[in-house]
Amino acid sequence: MTDSDRTAEAPAQPTRDRTTRSAALIATLIALPITVLVGGVAFAQLSPDEPAATPSASATSAGPQSTAPVEMAAPALAERPTVVCRALLSQLPSTVNDLVQRPVTAGPEQNAAYGDPAVTVACGGAEPAVGDTDDVWTVNKVCWYAVEKSDVTVLTTLDRETAVTVRVPRSYGQGLQWVAPVSDTIVASVPSNGDKPSGCRR
Which residue, 158, 179, 184, is CA-closest to 168? Predict the structure, then answer.
């Protein structure tokens, strides 16, 4: 091969280099997303499981949920408590912590019930006597007194013109967590009596 032949073939080398580099670049562009995807899958498999979601209130009761009327007493109320209770009942939410409202056997203008077993709301009852050392609780600006019984927690307002009592089955856990949505409605519809126990004052 003459020197002139070698000189004529020399320009072909850069073309081969460019072709090789282009092929390598394309291979890299294809391989990179695949590598990221495989790495992500492997990381997800090694990650700890997410904590289980807290069950909703409706899930705490096994079996079908009854929609039958809940038996409740409806004592006669004086004129002013009747007006206040009607205002409260007209504004109560349709659900409380995912429990759907159910009908009651008596006094729908002063009673409400939710879920099965039922959380009940009774307006117009007597306010309990509370000792100086008894625990009282403020929930959403409403002062509550709680009595733990074998099957229910009975919570009654202490700072309202007309008392409101909420009964929460013990199977639902801490009773105070159930009065928050009711407290919001009480603040909007039941006037304060201006007399809070010292434990509820801020």
Answer: 179
